[in-house]
Every structure is written in structure tokens, then in C-alpha cells.
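The instructor's notes for this session suggest beginning with a concrete chain rather than abstract definitions. Hand out the sequence below and ask the class to guess, before any prediction is shown, which regions might be ordered.
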Amino acid sequence: MTGMTRRRSIVWRLVWIACACCVLAIAAALATEMLAHDPYIAGAIGAGVAIVCSVAWIPRALAPMTAMFRALEGTVTSYRDGDFAFSLAWDGNDELGDLVVAHNALGDTLRNQRESLVQRELLLDTMVQNTPIAMLLVDPSGHVVYGNLAARKLLGGGRRLEGMKLQSLLDGAPESMREAVTRGGDGLFVVTHDDEEEDVYYLARGGFRLNGRRHELFVLRQLTVELHRQEVKTWKKVIRLISHELNNSLAPIASLAHSGAELVKRGQHDQLERVFATIAERSQHLERFIQGYAKFAKLPAPRLEPTDWAVLVERLRAQIGFTVDGALPDAPALVDPAQLEQALVNLLRNAHESGSPAAEIRLRVRKVPDAVAIEVVDRGSGMESAVLTNAVLPFYSTKRGGTGLGLALVREIAEAHGGRIALSNRDGGGVSVTITIPQ
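After discussion, reveal the predicted structure:
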């Protein structure tokens, strides 16, 4: 057909060779029979002709295919070694031609993937090298396998670190850095310079296997600028809150003082009691506000002592209403009773302010493995996800006039005891706050 190559199957090629051998063998046998008139001799000669023709023609016909199979074997070996620059050519339009086409397509695919991987590796290496985060990869013998530019600047004075012992690098590093690496785990440390300036770093480490051997990755991130930025942001927020509260209290006090002076001039002494009562109420509010900040800023280390749950609950009942859910543990808790009482008062007060019915505000204390869990639940309006995330942050509040220190103080008390606080919305409405303290 015009524009198309006729397909020739390898099988049919071998069949034609076999048929040609058979035809020659039959012709030789017939000729021998006519001359010798001996069928046995004719058969032997025919078989010999068939064998000779097969030995002569079949290897010659299969030689190009044999060469191609050897070429395929060689290119597959090259592929295994990571060399994808080979391609093959075959003129025949047969099964071997299809195999060569598929083989070349595979080579193109592997070559493109290799080029893509090389480009990605170059991009990744560029990003890792130029990141301000110092990265060190250390092998099991303690030698540095890889160190980016930030690591070179931090530990090597700008020189390459590959092949050096990690311990020798740490010998010239600040003491706080040596201690952070030696003690293991992740954490913060502070480096103090000769000019008394301080830099805060976060050390993260992780292990993984590389080429069958376990390596350790050290990541050192400088947090000084971020912490300073957050510190300034926090101070600005504190100043705004304090200014707001001071203005809310001092402005009415100044106005009432002026009104009181006018009443004295007019001789209307009977109204002075109301003026002075309002001034006292605003002054007390301002005092409570300042004391709340002072208490949060000066929270002392907890003084742990055995505390009876029944006694603690009775002290709480004297201050605020709630219902105890379940039995209290018989064993006393090893806590600071004053701090835990303050934390629970804050939680119970929040529950009352949530709009929950008083009968639905409950306190539950239960033993968990190696700890005690104290849970305060209510049936108020609950919290949005954003509020749940930020509720324990200092100065974060959704209440009008709130200081944002209640839950923050609870978290500080829980963490000072080595515990934690968890908040979640309840099915059916309300919030559950749980303090877990190790025992």
C-alpha cells in the first residue's frame, strides 16, 4: 500500500526459510530417486540437503536479530548504570521493530525524568544552600556529610564543613550551643556575644537512613528577629490594653471629681455619697485590673503539697457555684493548692459568664495514668475554632472589657505543675476545659 510499509513477521520469515529448505530437500530426493532408483538413498540425500540449507540460511537470517538482542542487552545494562543516552534503530517492520520502538520510548522517558530530577535537585540545593537556616548532616562516625552556607558561617567561619568532625566544630562553638547539641532533643538556646547582645536559636534534630546507614540532621534556626518582633507586638498590645483600661477608669473618676467639687460649691452635700461611691467602684475595678496583670507577671514556682480534694472543692464552693460530677479521688493531689484554686476559680467564672445555666456547670476530677485530669464543663454558647486556638494566649479576649489573662493564667499554672490545658466544644453546646497534672 502507498505510504505504508508492509509488515513482515519474524515467524513468517522463519516459515518461508523452512519451506524453502523442504522444497530443496524434496527436489534433491526426487532427483536422486530418478537417478539411483533407491528410496533410502533419496531420503538421506533429501534430509542432508534440508539440514545443510537450514544451517546455512537460518543463522544468516537470524544474524541481524541476534545483533539487535545483544544491543538491547547492552543498552539495558547502561540504563541500570544510569546512562540513558542510547537509542537503537531497526529497519524491519516486525515484532523486533516494535520492541526497539518501545525500548527507545522507555529511554526517552527515563532521560526526561533524569533531566527533571537533575533540575529539581539543583533547585533544591540552591534553596537549601541559600536558606538562612543552618543545616548539618552527620554520619554515624560523627563526620559532617553536608553543611549549607548558613552552617558554614555559623560553625566554620565560612569554610566547607564536609569531612570535619562535628565534635571539633562544637569545640569552637559557644557553650550554650554545645550543651544544646549534647543534651539531645529539640529546644531553644541563647548565644551571648562579646558586646552583650543575645541571639536566640532553635535546634531541631532528626534521624533517617541514607545509603543503608543512619544519619542525623541538625537544623539551627535563629529566632532573635522574630522574637523581637513578637515582643514589640506584645508590648504594644499590652500598652493599648492598659491605656484603654486606665482611660475607662480615670476619665469617669476625673469627671466625678469635678462634679463633686461643683456639688460642694452649691452646698448639695446629699449627692456627694453617690459620687464618692462611684469613684470608689471605678478605683476598685482599676485596682483589680492592675493586680491581675501583676499576678500573671509574677506567678511564683508552685509549692507542691498533698491537697485533699474535698477541702479544695469546699473552698471553691464558698466562692462560686457549681456541681461536682462523680466521686472525688480518695488520694490527695500533689499540687500548689492556692494556684490550683485560682485556676479553677477562673474556669468556673468563665463558665458562668458563658451564658450556661448554673445547674449545667460541673467539675469532674478523675485519675488517668500517672496524672490527674480536672475538667470544667458548661452548656454555654461554645467557642468558634479561631477562639479555641487563641483562647489561652495572653491578652486575647472576646469579652468587652476583658483582660485576656484568665485562661492564660490557667495555662501558666498548669504548665508550672508540668501539666497542660485542653479546650474543646461539647456536643450539644458548651465548652469543656481540662487541666491534666502529672502525679
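Then share the key points. The mean pLDDT is 79. The radius of gyration is 44 Å.
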